[in-house]
Every structure is written in structure tokens, then in C-alpha cells.
Amino acid sequence: MPLVIFLLMFIIGSATEKLCPLRASIDILEGEYFFLCFPESMQEHFQKAEYTVNWNKEDAGKQKLIKETHRIVSQMNFLEFWPVELSDSGNYSVTRSDGKQNFTIQKWTLNVLERNKSSCFNENHLTTEIKNAGSGHSLKCSDLSVNENDSITWYKDCKNYQNKTERELDFKTLTIQHSGIYTCKILITHEGRIFHSTSTIHLVVEEDAPEAVTLEIVGLDEEVETQIGKEEILNCTGFLGYYMPEDASLYWSINQTFPEKCSGIPENEPSICEEEFKKSRIGNKFYVTRLLRIKKVTDEDMHLNFTCMLQADEGMRVKIVKLKKGNIQDLPVHIFTTGMVLAVIFLCVAVVMVVVCVTFRVDLVLFYRNIYRRDDTAGDGKEYDAFVSYLKDCLSPSEEEREFALNILPMILEENFGYKLCIFERDVSPGGAVVDDIHSFIDKSRRLIIILSQNYISDRAIYELESGLHKALVERKTKIILIEYMPISDYNFLPESLSLLPSQRVVKWKKDKSLPVNSRFWKNLRYLMPAKPTKSNTKGQYNNLDLGSEGVQPWTGGCDFNSVL
């Protein structure tokens, strides 16, 4: 039934006809007489059409028929409470039925407020009216009486006010002193008992009160741009003026049907539901608001009229909202900005990580080998980890090279890091064919370590170097590691094929700075050596090495390599 019928019946009802509450939510004080009803003209329509009328109250989410008692009485279009109690709070509805289907005529939410024992009114159950001094005004007692002769008494601030008993309290000229809380009390006789009904008005008289304004809905009829599948919330706000009318109500309808109430539980929400009615005050202005929530916009919703209706003081305003498909919006600025910032941060982090990985590449590889105990030597058929080639000429002016090759190098690599070196003077027995021995031992080794210096040139050293280069560049069986023991300014004395080796396979010895086990020299050398689990008895510093008495003595069985060959 269109809402217009209700509004017309409310407006044109006679002075003696009880006014039926149309607002969805009603507050009432406990212990007072109260009733719910719908217009009598609708009752006559239902009677002619052979309909039955049922009053229901929601219980555990289901509508249950109200059973009459001596206190709760239903008379077709009326449901009376003699009196109302706190337990009567809840959701009520009145339905008509023709025996085949039910139709809901109207719904209410009844909130029964507890009576203030120390006062004649409850602060949550009053209306405020703001008027300017010097004007005339009248306060109206809410018409809840059964008979016109029911006794009426007016109170101001809970004291009898000038023995006034009229339904309207008239003020010809308002003054500041007229401000106060006025309570109208109606005494009603029913079955030999006396009941009462009260209404309370807070009258505020101001010197410069704002002028009276008309009821209005904020904003004009509008079309809201949206997208299919998007959640949409429609807002309807009504401006009531400078006081809150007791009968103010605001609600939505969709093509002349009322939406369901939102339950607050997302998974149980209907596709379209109406939020609770909210009142607010900004300064001395009063507003009411109600939201209509559309969970997911459908194509069908684009063709519906969403109507917001505001009713108060027997006036009504209407606002119509329609949905239309909008253009796909660009990415919001804040999301775009956030994305760009994150992208820049990610790029910077990536650059820093690349720089760190390049700078500390050797340390990271050694750390990885140590953690996972990686061993590249298992099962490759090689006997030695490296063959050490250095200057063995008896006429060499530098003993340091031989001491480095025979003492420092094996002491660190063998005793601390578990490598096995092949040093010709130490590991090859005298008397054999030198050329065959060199070729054989290089072939048994995974690396060829060449200790380079300006004095490196000798027949045997060159043969070892050329054999290693052949293994590395042609046969690809052995990798070469160059240790620059002394600074070399000119490499022209070395074979040209040596230039084909990667530059990173050259490690520079820097004397005392390179002695500590954790120095960059030993890290770079271990990085070029095959991966092998490290021994646990690693020592820290070797600054006081005794290289003379305990060193491995070189083999001096022959100094002339050509004669040996």
C-alpha cells in the first residue's frame, strides 16, 4: 500500500480521531497508557475485502501473534497497552491476511524507557522547541486521551503550572522567564482504574532566536555515478529546524516498497537494506539522517527510483536518487603516490642489495659454503686441491718467494682450511723424470697456483705455467690462480695465452697486511679454490711466523732444469 495513503489519513483525520504514529521508532515511558494503530478508513477497506488483521511482535527473529491479556488489548486497527511495561520493548507489525497470503501494513520499533524516580520526566523522552522572545506561541499536549473529557494537568519543572488544564498552553508574548521544561499529564479512566500519559517539551526562549525555517531535505534530486558490482551507500539527511519534533521520521522507499532493516551482520545482510534512524544537533540546528546500503550494484538497480521521505509537524519532503553508470575512474592520487613511493623504495633496496652482493661477493660465497658444508672435491678423481708453481732457480736473489710457497701457503691452506697442496720439492721424490712428474701432478690437481714475480722466469717454471695453461684453456681440466707475490709492472715476459685468463683470478699478496687468516688475500684465495668444508681449529694471526728452522726444506737435487730434461 503506498505510503501516501498513510500520510493522507494522518492529515485529514478528525480532531476526535486518535492520531496513529507513523514514525518507525517510538519512545514511551514505562507505566503509561499507549497504543499503536493504523487509520480506520483502511480497516473498513480490509473488512469489505474480507481480510483479517493480526498484530505481531518479533521474538527470536520470528513474528509471533500477540495474545490478548487484561493489559494488552487489540481492537482491529488498535493495539492498546494498559499500561506499557519495560518488557514490551521490541519490534511490532500489523498484517492483513485473506487466508492465502499475508501483507504487512506497517512496522514499528517500540522503545520503553525506564521512568526517572526522582523526576516527573525522562531526559531521553522530551522534545525541544526554541523560540524568540516577544513572539506568541502555544505548547500542545500529545493527543493520547480516549475521551475529550479526560483530565489534563500542566507542570513546569515538575511543579503545577498555574492550574492550567487545557490541551494547549498559550503564551501571548514569550519572555526569557517562560523557558523551562513543561510536562502535560493526561489522566485516563479504564475499567475502573486510572492510567496516565505524559508528554514533555523543553521550551527555550532566546532574545535573538533564529527565524522559523521550513522542513527540508539536504540536497536536490540527484544521479549518483557508480559501477556494477560496487558497494554504494546513499545518504539522506533532513533539516528539521531549531527544535526536534517528536513525530519526526525519515525513511527510504524503492519503487514504493520499503527496504529491509540492516542487521549489522555482513553475511546476513540483504542486497539492499536501510540503516538505523539517527538524530543529531549541530549548534542549535536539528538534523535526522538515514543511510541506504546497496551491497553490490546490479544492472537492475540502475532503473530503480530510490526515494527519501522526511515527515515532521504534518509536513513532508521527498528526494529521489537514481543510479547511473559512470566512467571508470583513474587510479586515486593517494594510491598512485603510494605505489610510486613503494616502487622507488623497492628500486633503491634492489640497487643496494646488488651493490652489497657485488662488494661482498667473496664473503657471501664463503659464508654459504661454511653454512651448507659444501664440498666440490668429492668424487672427482683428483688427488690434490692445487699444484703450487713458483721460482725454483737456485740463483734467485729472493728467498721470500720460496718461504711463502713452502711455509706460509701450506700452513694456512692445509692446516686451517683443510686443502691438500702438491709442492714439487716437498711431495715429489728425487730421481724421477721431472717432465713426466710435473705433467702428472698438474693433471692430479684441481687448481694450478702460480706465484708470480719479476724473477719467475726459469725453464721449469715456464714449463709448469705452459702445462697449466694447456690444461686450463685447451683441455679445460684445471683452473689457474695467479698470486702476484711482488708488484709486476710489465707482464710481457709471460706467455700471451695468460691474457686469456679472467682478471679476477689474480690475487695480490701485500706482505704483513695479508698475514691474518681473515685478511682479504686469504678470502679471495679460498674463493678461487674448490669448495671444501673448513677445519674448526682456525688460528687468528700469523705475524710472528718462524719460517727458517721449521719450514719445509727445498729439494736441491738439481738446479739445472735442462740437464734434468
List the helices and strands and how they pair.
Layout: H1 3-12, E1 25-29, E2 34-37, H2 40-48, E3 52-59, E4 62-65, E5 72-75, E6 78-81, E7 90-97, E8 102-113, E9 127-132, E10 137-140, E11 151-156, E12 159-160, E13 168-171, E14 180-190, E15 193-206, E16 216-217, E17 222-226, E18 232-241, E19 249-254, E20 260-261, E21 272-274, E22 278-282, E23 285-294, E24 306-312, E25 315-325, H3 333-359, H4 361-372, E26 384-389, H5 400-415, E27 421-423, H6 424-427, H7 434-443, E28 445-452, H8 459-475, E29 479-484, E30 506-508, H9 520-528, H10 561-564
Parallel strand pairs: 1-8, 9-15, 17-25, 20-21, 26-27, 26-28, 28-29, 29-30
Antiparallel strand pairs: 2-6, 3-4, 3-7, 5-6, 7-8, 10-13, 11-12, 11-14, 14-15, 16-18, 18-23, 19-24, 21-23, 22-23, 24-25
Please supply descriptive tags for the structure shown above.
565 residues, five-stranded mixed beta sheet, alpha/beta, disordered C terminus, 10 helices, six-stranded mixed beta sheet, rod-shaped, interleukin-18 binding
Structure described in brief:
This protein has ten helices and 30 strands.
Describe the structure.
The protein is α/β, with parallel strands linked by helices and 565 residues long. 21% of the residues lie in helices and 32% in strands. The chain has ten helices and 30 strands. It has helices spanning 3-12, 40-48, 333-359, 361-372, 400-415, 424-427, 434-443, 459-475, 520-528, 561-564, and strands spanning 25-29, 34-37, 52-59, 62-65, 72-75, 78-81, 90-97, 102-113, 127-132, 137-140, 151-156, 159-160, 168-171, 180-190, 193-206, 216-217, 222-226, 232-241, 249-254, 260-261, 272-274, 278-282, 285-294, 306-312, 315-325, 384-389, 421-423, 445-452, 479-484, 506-508. The strands form seven sheets. Strands 16, 18, 20, 21, 22 and 23 form a six-stranded mixed β-sheet that branches. A five-stranded mixed β-sheet has the order 1-8-7-3-4. It has a five-stranded mixed β-sheet with strand order 9-15-14-11-12, with no helix packed on it. Strand 26, helix 5 and strand 27 (421-423) form a beta-alpha-beta unit. Helix 4 (361-372) packs across helix 9 and helix 7 packs parallel to helix 8 (459-475). The radius of gyration is 51 Å and the shape is rod-shaped. The model is unreliable at 1-18 and 538-565 (pLDDT under 50). Residues 382-529 form the TIR domain. Keywords: Disulfide bond, Glycoprotein, Hydrolase, Immunoglobulin domain, Membrane, NAD, Receptor, Repeat, Signal, Transmembrane, Transmembrane helix. One of its GO terms (cellular component) is membrane.
